Amino acid sequence: MQAFTVMFYRQVLRFFRARARVVAMILNPLIWLLFFGLGWSRVFQSPMARVIFGGVDYLTFLAPGIFAMTLFSQSFIGGVSVIWDKQFGFLKEILVAPAPRAASIAGRIFGDATLVTLQGLVVLMLTFPLAHALKPAGLLPSLLLGFLMALAFAGLGTALALKMESLEGFQMFMMILILPLTFLSGAIYPIGAMPGWMQALAYANPLTYAVDGARHYLVGASAARFALALDWGLLLLLALGFLLLAALAFRRATLEG
Amino acid sequence: MQPAIVAEGLKKRFGRVEAVRGVSFEVRPGEIFAFLGPNGAGKTTTVHMLTTLLRPSAGRAEVAGFDVVAAPTEVRRRIGVVFQDPSLDRELTARENLYIHGRIYGLGGPALREKIGEVLRLVELEPVADRPVKQFSGGMKRRLELARALVHRPRVLFLDEPTLGLDPQTRAHVWDYIRAMKVEAGLTLFLTTHYMDEAEALADRVAIIDRGEIIALGTVEELIRRIGGELLYLRPEGKGRCRPLPGVRNCRELPDGRLLLEVEDAASALPRVLEALLAGGQRVREVTLRRPTLNDVFIRLTGRELRDELTRPGPAGWRGRR
């Protein structure tokens, strides 16, 4: 358990040490909300548009999407720290330690997920004044659901990074995963409006269920597409699966890569 | 008393390259044991096998009484490692690095705080303990790594090229710290180096390793005694040529034109050698007398200079695989 808590602590310590990163992580979703959200919300002011977005204004529709998207991308990108640890040698310090490997990698993933969830909280606090229709009661369950998703993607990012030799390799995964999964999640436009083949991809996208769950809590049941049990169940399975994957990847890790 | 390290026929193969080709040795508790050899000789690969980071292709090894393959966790509990390349968290301070290390090894509370203060004092980093490591010089980082490796009171300490890339003054300083560490009760040190002066300065016993094999093992005195006698460097007029000379066991023509002669006893051999050379029409302008060093042992065993190897990259091994 010591290894878990200390690796958790290390992630937190490193996060707050990097001031620029803290600012960038809050700025990025704010840019989406303001310049993307506010702009398009003026375009979608007709009553017709309200019907498309489930009876709410565009900014209210978009807000849970931006929240989920932030958590997803930031937790996945957290895997980069594993690559830095490889390049600066710190990983060897962990590999040669007697602590259980699974505990130290889990500490790291839970640390990342917690930090990302805190960012999600900040994003939502900034969102409430902009999108008045959001339900404050949805805050806590959304954060919990978001934490589960952050665990899943921090786990995936970490497992991938353990297999990567270079930053470039990981960046390629960021490129091919983050944007498409964001567009295919219903975060920015409703899944119902997508062509059939795109809808099929959206159903296979885990981020879809996080967006859906967050929308359920923050906007209302009518704005959601799936049952809450499905959102929670899928994300729980995914989190467990990716945590296990990361633990296995790290247990086998030697200097031979 | 049980040996601190036992290696029997340890081998490591990377694809088609055999980096370590069956090394066997024992390290006694409390001694400083050095692996001396050129780059690519298999030193780091051996350290990685002994510290459970690489699985041997063949052979076996025990460290602090436990098998490195069968009981890696038991081995890890009892060893400290200073890797050749830094393995610190650059974003964190020296104290935070030590704290995290201690916690990973299951320490905590006042005992850990006290130990951290103690190791910081040992390597004289207390005044900068709360500065981030990325501001440290190479020498300071190395000292911090030495300190960190001691936090959990290991029984065997591995130092892989502990002074690589440091300036001469800092190197001498690091040697002092290493000697001070040995004073810690019962601590056994296994160090690798390609600096013969480092092996001579620190090691109780030295294994000379070349191309994945141990080619000589013993105390520095024992190894040098194998050469026996003394070395004479003669600078003749013109280029020197080796020829049979009285009292000379071995002769080498050096690239700078000098002759390197191995003799039993320089005082009695020198007059006879000079006479014989003069009789052959060769005048000598300068004579230097030197006791043999580990470098001479290396030359005798391999026909190559240890120092020459430094400029050429070694065969592909772990170092090339990063």
Verbal overview:
The complex is a heterodimer of chains A (257) and B (322). Chain A has 257 residues and is mainly α. Chain A is 76% helix and 0% strand. Chain A has one domain (2-251). Chain B has two domains: 5-224, Rossmann fold (3-Layer(aba) Sandwich), CATH 3.40.50.300; 229-291. Chain B contains eleven helices and 14 strands. In chain B, 34% of the residues lie in helices and 27% in strands. By secondary structure, chain B is of the alpha/beta class. In chain B, the strands form three sheets. Chain B has a six-stranded mixed beta sheet, sandwiched between helices. Residues 309-322 of chain B have low confidence and may be disordered.
Give a summary of the structure in a few sentences.
The complex is a heterodimer of chains A (257) and B (322). Chain A is mainly α and 257 residues long.
Element layout with pairings:
The complex is a heterodimer of chains A (257) and B (322).
Chain A: H1 2-17, H2 19-43, H3 47-52, H4 58-77, H5 80-87, H6 90-95, H7 101-127, H8 139-163, H9 167-183, H10 196-203, H11 206-218, H12 228-251
Helix pairs in contact in A: 1-7, 2-4, 2-7, 4-7, 4-8, 4-11, 5-8, 7-8, 7-12, 8-11, 8-12, 11-12
Chain B: E1 5-14, E2 17-27, E3 32-36, H1 43-50, E4 58-63, E5 66-67, H2 72-78, E6 79-82, H3 94-104, H4 109-122, H5 138-150, E7 156-160, H6 168-182, E8 188-193, H7 196-202, E9 205-210, E10 213-218, H8 220-227, E11 230-236, E12 248-253, E13 259-263, H9 266-279, E14 284-290, H10 294-302, H11 308-311
Parallel strand pairs in B: 3-8, 3-9, 6-7, 7-8
Antiparallel strand pairs in B: 1-2, 1-4, 4-5, 9-10, 11-13, 11-14, 12-13
